[in-house]
Model the fold of this input.
Amino acid sequence: MLLRVSAIRDETLAIRLFELVDPDGLDLPGFTAGSHVDVTLPDGQVRQYSLCNSPAERRRYVLGVLRESGGRGGSCQMHARVFPDDLLMVSVPRNHFPLDENARHHLLIAGGIGITPLLAMVSRLHSIDASFELHYCTRDEKSTAFRARLAVGDIASKVHFHHDGGVPGKGLDVSELLASVVSGTHVYCCGPAGLMAAVKAAGAHWPAGQIHFEHFTAPALCPSVVGTASFEVEIASSGLVLSVPADRSILSVLMSAGVLVDSSCGAGVCGTCTTRYLSGEPDHRDVVLSDAEQREHVMICVSRARSARLVLDL
Done:
């Protein structure tokens, strides 16, 4: 979709909000809490940003973008080269971080810019009168985005702010928070790698499927796309068989052969290249697909194959 930037506002010194609308004032495709969109930047790069406004809204998408000088340049472009009334190419929303609205209680843990998908969750949970609490970790009050929005009415009593002054050990004690497994509680976490790793370690004794993560970048310990052996992929529609060397990804081999597949992050975090497979055994290396999804789909930008051949539904 080609959307117009209707407003830009600084939420903190480093976080800027971008409001996107249909140029003709039409409704936008609906989204669910936890969704993100792909945004094509001025130089043609594509980056993923979570939608942080209420899923009940149909006339706008709101993105919160942290300016990261040490990143890959996407956030700096958004801050320096995108202005009101600009037109941006934006994908339909996708959700790899969905709420389980049937859960008895929702425990939300956000760090820094990781508040963006959880903010939409707060809106949704509040609207359906669901039980939840939010633990929001930042360096200090000045760097805490959306503080005013989270201090309104009944929501305020469910939000806990944790400031560590730049020393992670002085912030939220996730080990204590997750020490006891609570039946019917689902945990949702998004934030810096250190916080994500701490929550994963602290919640290791929780049942599978009760703790959910949204990664903005691939975790440091995520397996490499590089393998130790080659394998084959077969295109089901044509019977074309291609060899995937140990030092190349499935996606790169397909693209070189002229097999066009949508892709974006190349790191197994956005889900754009998710592809159904018909036979074979994938070596899943993404951080998005659930166990159930992995039984039918594979993310070909990072994953490989344990079997000699993987047949793709392409």
Q: What stands out?
A: The chain has three domains: 2-90, 105-214, 231-312. The first strand starts at residue 2 and ends at 10. The domain at 105-214 is CATH 3.40.50.80 (Rossmann fold). The mean pLDDT is 91.
